[in-house]
Structure formats: C-alpha cells, structure tokens
Amino acid sequence: MPRYFTQDHEWIDVVGASATVGITDYAQGQLGDVVFVELPPAGRTLAKGDDAAVVESVKAASDIYAPVSGEVTQGNAALEADPALVNSAAEGDGWFFRITLADTSELDGLMDAAAYAAFVDTL
Amino acid sequence: MSDDFETDSDDEGTEPETMTLPLDGWHRARGARMVEFAGYHMPIQYEGIMAEHLWTRSHAGLFDVSHMGQLQLIGANGVADAAEALEALVPGDISALKPGRMRYSLLLAEDGGILDDLMITNAARNLYLVVNGAVKWDDIAYLREQLPDDITINHGDDLALLALQGPQAVAALSRIGLSTLQPDWPAVADLVFMQASPYDWHGVALGISRSGYTGEDGFEISVPAEHAVALADALCAQPEVKPVGLGARDSLRLEAGLPLYGHDLDPAVNPVEAGLAFAISKRRREEGGFHGAEQILAQLADGPPRRRVGLTIAGRQPVREGAALLAGDKVIGIVTSGGFSPSLEVPIAMGYVAAEHAALGTALVAEVRGKRIAITVAAMPFVPHRYVRKIG
Fold this sequence. Notes:
The complex is a heterodimer.
Chain A (H helix, E strand, L loop, with lengths): L2 E3 L4 E6 L2 E6 L1 H7 L2 E5 L6 E2 L4 E7 L3 E5 L4 E6 L2 H4 L3 H4 L8 E4 L12 H9 L2
Antiparallel strand pairs in A: 1-2, 2-3, 3-9, 4-6, 5-8, 6-7, 8-9
Chain B lengths: L23 H6 L3 E5 L2 E6 L3 H10 L1 E5 L4 E6 L4 H8 L15 E7 L5 E9 L4 E5 L4 H11 L5 E4 L3 E7 L3 H5 L4 E3 L15 E6 L2 E6 L8 E7 L3 H9 L4 E3 L2 H10 L26 H6 L5 H10 L3 E8 L10 E4 L2 E12 L4 E9 L8 E6 L2 E8 L14
Helix pairs in contact in B: 2-7
C-alpha cells in the first residue's frame, strides 16, 4: 500500500481508488496538544486544496487542506472521543478521513516517505 | 497546514528585525520552540503547553517575561512627586501606596480608553512600573509626553524579568540563597500578594514581588540581564521548577480570568466595561482628576453598555478570539480570548457582551466557521485564584 506525503504535512494511504488521509508526526509535533478535530462529513465533495478539516490545539486552530480531490466517505469517529490520538498516533489510529480519488494523477506530484523526510530536514 | 503563530524562520521579509532576550540561548538549549512575540524571539513551549500548564498548577513554572518593559519614575523631590504626576494618567490611588506595595492599574488615554495595563510598585526611591512588551515603546513615549519634565523616566532595558508561578514556587525560591538587605525586611516567604522587596542573591541585586499572571501563588523577579542565565539555572535546579512557555502563560491567565492587553483590552475599551472597576480607587472616584474621569465615572454610575464576561462552551470545540456572540439571530458581542482549559479539560473563553446579556447563566450562541455553538455566560476566574494574602 503506497503512502504519499504533501508539503502541507499530510499523509495519504492509497488502496485502489480510495485513500485515507491524516497529518504527519512532524505536523502533530508542531501543533502541540490537539483538543478537537473538525472533520468533513461523509458525502462532501472536496477539490484538491479545499479546506477539509480543522485541528484545534490548546493554542490555535489550523486548517487541513484536501491533498487530493474526491468525495469523503468517512471521518474518523475515534477522534471525537479522543482527539489526542492525533498526537499519539498521527500516522496510524489518528487518521482524519477517507476519500474516493477523483483523479489518481493528482498523486503524481506527491512525495514518498524518503522524500518527505528529506523535506522535513530542510525546515 | 497553517498556523496562527508566526514560526521562527528567516523569511520574515521587510518586518523589523526580531530582537533576542538575555535567555534566548538558554531557551533554545532546553528545546524551546521559539516564536516572534512583541518584537522578540520568545519560547512558546518546551515539552508541550498542556504538560507545562498542569505542572505550573501543581508545582512551579519558570516564565521568561523579559520582553515586558521595566520602568522607573523618579520625582524631583522623591516618590510622592512621581505618584502625584502619574495619577493624572491612571485611576489608582498611587499616592497611598506604601513602600514595598504594588497595585494593578491602567494607563489611560485622554478619553479614558486603555492604552495598557500595568503594575505600579512603590520602590521607596522611585515608582517601578512593569508594562506590556508589545506596547512598551508607545508607553514610554506617552509617559514622556504626558508627565512633567522634572519626572525622570528610566527604562530598565538592562534588566531581565522572570516569573516563578505555582503552589511550590515559594519553597523553590526560598532555597536558592536569597538574603534580605535589612534584618527586619521580609524574606520572600513572608511577602504577601502584591508586596515587593529587594534581595541580594550571591552579590546580585534582585527585585522580587509576590505577584503574577497565572492565578497561582508566585513571584516576579527582576534581575540584571547578565545574571539572568545563572538565576534561571539556579531556579530550574530546584526539583519543583520547570521552564514554561508563552503558550501555557496564555492558557493559565485565561483560566484565571485575567485580561490580555491587545486582545481583551485596547484603546476602545473603558475600564468599567472591562470589569476592572476595582482598579479605580475610592479617593480617585471621589476626586476624579485622571484622564477620561468623566466617561469612566459616568459608566460607574450608570453601568456600562457592554461588559467583559466569562463564557463556558458546550462540547469540546474551542471558540476563539473574533467569534461573534449572538442572542437569537442578533449579534450582541464578540469573543476576545478563547481556548482550551487544560485544568478543566473543556473549552473556555472571555469576551464582551451587551449589558442586558451579561447576567451569569445567560444562554448565548457563538458562531464558529458557520456552526452555532451553545455558550453560557459564566463567572471568572474559571479556576480559583490561590494568592497568598496573609502569612501564617
């Protein structure tokens, strides 16, 4: 299962025409203690770059942009009860939402894990 | 991902150059994440806002607040001259302050608007003022313009300022080897809230007050810049003490119901509507004679048209600064500070609402990103103050 990364610090796991989206461990470290996540409802159609979710830390609210275009099929209900999952398991159980891929060519410009690690090193 | 904070990068374009404070390297060596604040590189957090916040409430947090302005006002014939002159610009009874006593006050514009909030201490030979970092240059210019020429204003820009806050602050501070300057002057453990005294720390002159911005017992310590690192090290060597960043400073003061200048207070806000009438001393209410006295005393008599209130929030979604507050479909106020309370584990906020909606328990609605969130007007502080007002 290929995992892609964006310069906005999101990860995308792709299975066929479906993708799971979350934020990276680096991103959660920058945000600090997450206290609330506002997720897009199932059925919402997102274009790449749209505001998709909002992560609230103690201090600030941060927008999460849709890394690819498609229709949201599911938000991670576990984040409602335990938003700190984003901190403890950003790249696992702390995933944000699942989305159908409208255009798989949008994945072409994204980074793999090695490229993302190199990108983070430049920050 | 976007963030409300300016991250500490080099691509700040044409902004004036961000300045460094005496503890800059000390913060970085301890893993602080630095941000630009009030023109300085400042630590926003070390291990995390939540952990630092809770540590301060249970142990003692060390805050670097060296960005704040430390000023001395010196009168031609002593401190009484300076107090009398300053009373034209603040509504407190400064002349009644005894040596070693301090008072929270407000620097007033000519129309009674709040230019800054500040601490004023009678330091025996001068009045010692601590003003907000973001407006200190404006404050100095305003004081110079407004005060008579025979009042000298010294800016202590060679001083750092540390705050040690929390229930174990007194134990930690009592252990680092402070000496009083006179045998009958109080040890730090014998200071009460809003009392100050000078100390000798291994040959270094410190000014220490029992005061702070967290709602906890604690101290603020003025130290010559060249000794700030040694003092911070000595304090953090105590088992009760950890460094705490600006992020937790903000969440602590919000829980304590304390307003933040530039957010909850600004020149368009009058002290009475800000809920700061306690800072208008009895004698000053009777005599007036301070900027905006007419407007301020009228609001005291008639009640202000709006009031600063605490807000509790249904659910877990924080309601932040700038969110509109509605009664039905009518906008009747605005949130000026909002966030998550680490102590209470719920979102909390403060803001201004029209006076008829300011009663405790009033149900309102906040609008956040198009969503309506149920809000209730609540008493502040959200977390009780634990100031030490009496010794023994």
